[in-house]
Amino acid sequence: MPVLCYPTSMTTNFGIWKGENPLDYTIPLFILQLLIIVMTSRVVAILLHPFGQPRYVSEILGGFVLGPTVLGRIPGFLRTLFPYRSLPILEVIAHIGIIYFVFIIGLEIDPSSLQRTGKYAIFAAACVMFPFAVGAISGKLVHTYLAIETNKSSFLTFLGVTLSITSFSVLARTLTEHKLINTNLGLTTLSTAMFIDSWAWILLSMAFSLSSGNLPAIMWTMASGMVFILWSVKVVKPAVLWVSRRKQKGEVVGELSASVILVGVMVWALLADAIGINAVSGAFVYGLMIPYGPLGVALIERVDDFVEGLLLPLFFAICGLRSNLYSVSNVWAAVALAMVALLSAAAKVAACMSVGYLYDMPLNDRFAMGLLMSTKGVIEMVILKIGRDMEVLSEQAYSILVVMSVVVTIAVGPLLKLATTSNRGQASYQRRTIMWPDPNSELRMLVCVHNTRNIPSMLGLLEACCPTKRSPVFVFALHLVELTGRASAMLVVHDTTGSASSSDPQQLHKVPLGRSRHMIQALESYAQRAAGVTIQPLTAVSSYSTMHVDVCGVAEDNCVSLIVLPFHKQPTVDGDMQVINPAIHSLNQSVLANAPCSVAILVDHGLSGPSRMAVAQHAVHHVAVLFFGGPDDREALALASRMAEHPAVSLTVFRFIPGDDSATLPSMRRYGSNYSDEVLTLEEDEENEEQLDEAYITEFRLKHVSDETVVYTEKVSNNAEETVAVIRSMEGIHDLYVVGKGGGSSSPLTEGLTEWCECPELGPIGDMLASNDFNANASVLVVQQGMQEHEMAAGMVEESPRKPR
User: Fold this and answer.
1) Do residues 187 and 493 touch, judged by C-beta distance below 8 A?
2) What is the distance, to the nearest Å, from the Cα of residue 802 to the centroid of all Cα atoms in its chain?
3) If 628 and its partner were Cys, which of 266, 432, 725, 744 is the partner (CB 3.0–4.6 Å)?
4) pLDDT-based confidence at 712, cuts 50/70/90?
C-alpha cells in the first residue's frame, strides 16, 4: 500500500506575490474544489432540465464528469485539482452533509402515519422482498464472476438492500413534477416509500454488522442498536415534544433550542457510529424523534439550503471520483450485474402489480407505482459508498451499480409520463354540470382565488347559490400562488386550524402561505355561520403556464361540477377595469379549454357579500339571466334557478327570440360547394338545440310558477343592434348578470358582436356586459357547460353528441 506524506501545517498561503501556489494549501484548494463541484452540477442540471430529470441525476452525472471516467482522463487534472491529500477533507465535509440530509429525511416522515393502515405496509413489504430476493439470489453468480474477496453474505446483503430501497425525497419531487403528488397514486406511493425508507436503515444496520464476520460482535451490535433506538424513543422524544408544544403555541423556536437540537444530530451520529450501526443511521433515528409539524419545518428552514446547495454536491462528487468505468475489466460480469439491477426494478413493478390487484387499483396506476418505487437517490449512494469504504463492493461493482442507479432513475420519468398520460382522462364521474335530475344532491364547486380581494365576491356568489342542509354545497377553495424562488410546485392542503400539510414537506417552508391563512380564516368564518356549506381550503403553488393542470386536476380528482374563476381584471376607484396579471387571462382560457366540468368566470363589480344576503328577509340581490339558447345558456339558467331558491334573491329571465325580419339561414358564401350538406347538418343541430331549450325553459317555468320573485319575459330582436339596445335598457337595475359563454355566438341576434370581443373567453354577451362601455355597476357571471350533456337533457329530447370544444 503506497504511503503519502505531506505537511499538515499547510492550510493557508501568504499570496501569489511571494511565489506560492495557492493550490498547495488546504483552504484555497478546498474553496476551488467546492466552486468547481457546484458549478459543474448546476451546468449539468441546466442541460438536463428540458428532459425533466430529477436533480439527483444531474448531480451524480456531475460527479462522473469530474471523476476518472471523463475529465479525469485529462493528464494532470485530478492530480492538480483533486489530489489524494485533499480527498479526506472532502469526504469528511461531504459525510457531514449526508448526516444532516438524512436527518432532514427523518424529519419529513410522520411515524404516526405508518400506523394508520396496513395497505402501505403490504406494498412496502412486497417492494422490498421481491427485489431483495432477486438481488440476493442472482448476486451469488455476480460475486463469483467479479472475484470479490469479501464475505459473500455481506456482499449479498448490501446488494439486496441497495436494489430494494426507494428514495423518498427524489420520489416526492418526481410526483410533484408530474402533477401526481395529491392523487391516490401519489399518496399511496409516498406512504409506501416511508415504510421502505424506515426499513432500509434497519437492513443497512444489519448489513453493516454482518460485514465484520464476528458473531459475538454482530450480536452485541444488534443488541446495542435496539437499546439505542429505545433510549431515543423514551428519553429524546419526550424532550423534543416539549419544545414542539411551545412552538405550536405560537412561540418561535429560539437560537438555543434550535442549536441544541441540531447539535444533537452529531451526538446521535457519533453514538450510532460508536456502537457499530453507522453514523447515518443514527441521524435518521434522531430525525424520526422530531415531531412532524411546525418544529420540523422550522429546523428544515435553518439547514436545508446549506445542506442541499453546498454539502450534498460534495458527496456526489466523491461518488463520481470513486467511480471509474474503465476499471471494469470483466465485461460479462458487468453485464450480469447490470441485468441484476434491471431485474430488481422489474421485480418492484411486478410486486406493485400483484399487490395493487388485490386492492383493485387500475392497471395503469399499478404499473406507474412500480416505476415510481424504482426511483433511486441519495440513500442508495450512501449505502453504496459505505459498502465501498468497507471493501464489501469492489471498484467494478461499485461503478456499475452507480451507473445502473442513474439509468433506472432516468428511465422512470418517460415511462411514468406514458403511463399517467394514458391513464389521465380515463377517470370519470357522473355529475360534470350543474344541470342534474336531482336538484337536492350535493353540488361540488371549485372556487379559485388569487388574492384577498377575490374573497368577498366569491363568498357572495357562494351564498347566492343557496346552500342548505337539504341541498348542500361542498366547496374546494383553491388559492393560486405563482411559483417563485426555489420552491417546488405543489398542492398544499389546509385543515380547519389553518395549519398546512403537503406530500413534499421539505419544500413547504419555501411557500408564502401568509395570504392563504387570511383566506382560510374568512372561509372558515363563513362556513361556521352558513348551513349546508363545507369548505376545504387548498393552495396550489405552480407557474402560470401549468397552473391550469392543477385546477383541472383538483376538479377531476374531487368530482367537481363547477369551477369558478375570477376575471383577470378588477375595478378601479374611477370605475374602469384594470388588468391584475396578464398571465391570469391565459390561465382562464386554458382552464376553459381543458376543464372536465362546467366553468364560470366571475367579473366582479362589487357583488354583495354573504352577510347582507344572509340577514335579508326580502329580495336585495337582483339577478338577471340573458338566455339566447344553447348548452351554455341552459347551464347558466340551471345555476340561476338554484339562486332563485334564496329568499334574498330575485331572478329575472330574459329570453331573446328572433323576430320575423331576422336572418335564419347561413350565407352560401360560407360553405361554397358543400353548402347543402353542411347547412342540413347545421339545421339539424339547431333544431335539436331549440328543442332542448324549449324543454328546459318549460321545466324551469313549471318549477318556479308560484314564486313571485322569479320573472320570465321574452324579448324579440331582429339583429345585433336591437339586442344591444335591449340589454342597455337594463342598466342600473340588476346586481348580477348570469350568461352563457356560447350564448348567441351563432345567433343572428348577435351577429358581428364576436368580432369586437376584447375577451373571447366571456363570449359576445359577457364581453359586452363586462366592458367599460356598459355603464351598469353590475357583476357578470359567464358560464360554460361541461363537455358532456347529461341524461337529464337527453331524456327530454334525444340529443346529438356535442362537438368537443
Assistant:
1) no
2) 32
3) 744
4) very high
- Do the Cβ atoms of 131 and 347 come closer than 8 Å? yes
Residue 525 CA to residue 517 CA, distance in Å, equals 12
Residue 667's pLDDT is 44
Q: Which residue has the cell 363537455?
A: 787
Among 454, 462, 354, 378, residue whose Cα is nearest residue 162: 378
Residue 536: helix, strand or coil by DSSP?
Answer: strand
Backbone angles phi, psi at 59, to 5 degrees: -75, -40
At 202-248, the pLDDT tens digits run: 777 666 666 656 677 778 877 888 888 888 888 888 887 776 676 55
Q: Half-sphere exposure (CA, 13 Å, Cβ side) for 177?
A: 19
H/E/C letters for each residue in 174-186? Answer: HHHHCCCCCCHHH
From CA 357, how far away is CA 327, in angstroms rounded?
Answer: 44
Alpha-carbon gap, residue 37 to 315, rounded angstroms = 10
- 562, pLDDT greater than 90: yes
CB 738 within 8 A of CB 783: yes
Q: Which of 628, 668, 598, 743 shows the shortest CA–CA distance to 754? A: 743
pLDDT above 80 (res 473): yes
> What is the Cα–Cα distance from 683 to 681, expressed in whole angstroms?
5
Planar angle of CA 436, 441, 446, nearest 5 degrees: 85
Taking the C-alpha atoms of residue 198 and residue 185, their distance in angstroms, rounded to an integer, is 20
Lowest mean pLDDT among 144-153, 401-410, 647-656, 787-796: 787-796
Distance of CA 413 to the CA centre of its chain: 15
Judge whether 559 and 444 are in contact, CB under 8 Å.
Answer: yes
Q: How many residues does the chain have?
A: 805
Alpha-carbon distance of 753 to 759, in angstroms, equals: 12
Of 451, 602, 398, 483, the C-alpha closest to 179 is: 483
Residue type, 49: H
CB atoms within 10 A of CB 104: 23
Nearest-CA neighbor of 380 among 195, 163, 565, 551?
163
Residues whose CB is less than 8 angstroms from the CB of residue 758 and which lie 6 or more positions away in sequence, other chains included:
767, 771
Cα 768 from Cα 762, distance rounded (Å) = 9
Between residues 184 and 781, the one the model is more confident about: 781
pLDDT given for residue 681 in this prediction: 60
- CB contact burial 385-412 (16+ within 10 A = b; e otherwise): bbbbebebbbebbbbbbbbbbbebbbeb
Q: Helical H runs in 211-309?
A: 215-231, 237-248, 255-275, 279-289, 294-306
168 vs 505: CA distance, rounded Å: 11
Distance (Å, rounded) from C-alpha 172 to C-alpha 373?
11
- Residue 217 C-alpha cell reads as 460482535
Confidence of residue 654 (pLDDT cuts 50, 70, 90): very high
Span 449-455, mean pLDDT?
A: 87
Cell of residue 748, nine digits: 343572428
Residues 793/692, Cβ–Cβ less than 8 Å: yes
DSSP strand pairing (569-571 vs 500-501): unpaired
Question: What pLDDT does residue 451 have?
Answer: 86
Those residues whose C-beta lies under 8 Å from the C-beta of residue 646, and which sit 6 or more positions away, are: 463, 464, 465, 466, 613, 621
CA distance to 4, 175, 566, per residue, from 515 (Å)? 60, 26, 17
Q: What is the dihedral of CA 371, 373, 376, 378, to 10 degrees?
A: 150
- pLDDT tens digit string along 525-544? 888 888 888 888 888 888 88
- Write out pLDDT tens, residues 405-439: 899 988 888 888 887 765 554 445 555 788 875 66
Rounded to the nearest 10°, the torsion over CA 87, 90, 96, 99 is -70
H-type helices in 49-86, by residue range? 55-66, 77-81
- In the block, cell 375595478 appears at 571
* Contact by Cβ (8 Å): 393, 155: yes
Angle at 236 between CA 233 and CA 237, to 5 degrees: 60
